[in-house]
Amino acid sequence: MNTTPIHTASTRITFVGGGNMACALIGGLLQRGYEANRFHVVEISDTTRQHLTQKFRVRTSAALPHGKLETDVVLLAVKPQQLREVARALRPALESQLVLTIAAGVRIVDLSRWLGGYNRVARAMPNTPALVLAGASAVCATAEVDATQREQAESILAAVGSVIWVEDETQLDAVTAVSGSGPAYVFYFIEAIDQAAQEMGLNAAQARQLVIDTFVGAAKLASGSEESAAILRARVTSKGGTTERAISEFDVANLKQHIISAVKSAAARSRELGDTFGQAG
């Protein structure tokens, strides 16, 4: 069902960078009722531009146009290392548009500085399940971003999954550690249980199907329940049963605390990267 408000579906969006996340967003927005003629993608790769034109019928170019941009939102979907150069090229083209960045680790204050003090900026942290329209994003905006622009940002990100707002940008380090890096944690567990299944005699296809379907099913069960993960886990863990034996192994290894420590370490690394990118110019 299309849940995008009519006025946001008419938003003109310029994507700077045409990689996987930009493709996911364009595809999701088209499914939500946006028209391809509302999009312009700036991408230096000839091959990528051809792919975008063929798949989505969007307008593309190899560089930002001269003069002011005829757009409502500029979505920066380039690598963090490229963002300073892109921002400096973008600076003369801005009037009052929303600049929405999905480049990991680059703080709003630094992007604004590279944009010559331009402050209508929002920063989002999506994750890779956005590629299958099952992402989880968090977004933070400056005070200069008005209500309409906040709605535009949320509408764009909601095209590929759920969206939360954080008012304190430092919380995006936690978001990066939890949902940004989170899919890798899930894949790590899938990898381990898959290996155990095969070591116990299941073939590769059987192991893959059982493990992935178990993770998908458990996630759906948690998503559809108002009860905590701890309660849901307890319901599966019968006294003296097989699940209790496995959980006791986790507890002996202090696995929960190791996971908590690992996620906090990822957040610390996010802060470090923000410091590093901020020192660049």
Nutshell version of this structure?
The protein has 281 residues and is of the alpha/beta class. The protein has 12 helices and 8 strands.
Structure characteristics:
alpha/beta
Series of H and E elements: HEHEHEEHEHEEHEHHHHHH
Average pLDDT rating = 95
Q: Helical region count?
A: 12
The total count of strands amounts to 8
- Principal-axes geometry comes out as elongated
Q: Regions with pLDDT < 50 over 5+ consecutive residues?
A: none
How would you classify the helix and strand content by structural class?
alpha/beta
How much strand content do the residues show?
A: 5-15%
**What is the CA-based Rg, rounded?**
21 Å
Q: Tell me about the biggest sheet?
A: 8 strands, mixed
Cα separation of the termini: 45 Å
Helix content: 40-55%
Strand order of the largest sheet: 3-2-1-4-5-6-7-8
Give a description of the structure.
With 281 residues, the chain is of the alpha/beta class. Strands 3-2-1-4-5-6-7-8 form an eight-stranded mixed sheet, sandwiched between helices. The protein is elongated and about 70 Å long.
